[in-house]
Amino acid sequence: xxxxxxxxxxxxxxxxxxxxxxxxxxxxxxxxxxxxxxxxxxxxxxxxxxxxxxxxxxxxxxxxxxxxxxxxxxxxxxxxxxxxxxxxxxxxxxxxxxxxxxxxxxxxxxxxxxxxxxxxxxxxxxxxxxxxxxxxxxxxxxxxxxxxx
Length: 149
Hints:
This protein is mainly alpha-helical. Helices cover 50% and strands 6% of the residues. The relative contact order is 0.07.
């Protein structure tokens, strides 16, 4: 008994080069972005520079900051000093750590509220002064909390 298994197409990885505009916060325009001529307060991504910056992060494991910044300047055509590259990478790490911390806190606060609500139900607290009937709790639950799994 022979069966034809047909052609299999493996799922492809999603394209990760979808960059978004960011708000302009300070005076300096970060490497990989340019001022948006249509919208004054926003910066448009430059995919070529951002992809080169991602490669540069990998090269930093083998080469010095100075060597990588020179390489990045040659590849992108836009100057970046070794100090600027260092600052950019440190800032990204800091933002990533901060966002992870906030997501974990949101998850733990949600868990704590669920436990408190279960405890109130278990002890039979049907009083009108319950925290879960308050306006503060309603406002808190109406805000969108990301689902962290």
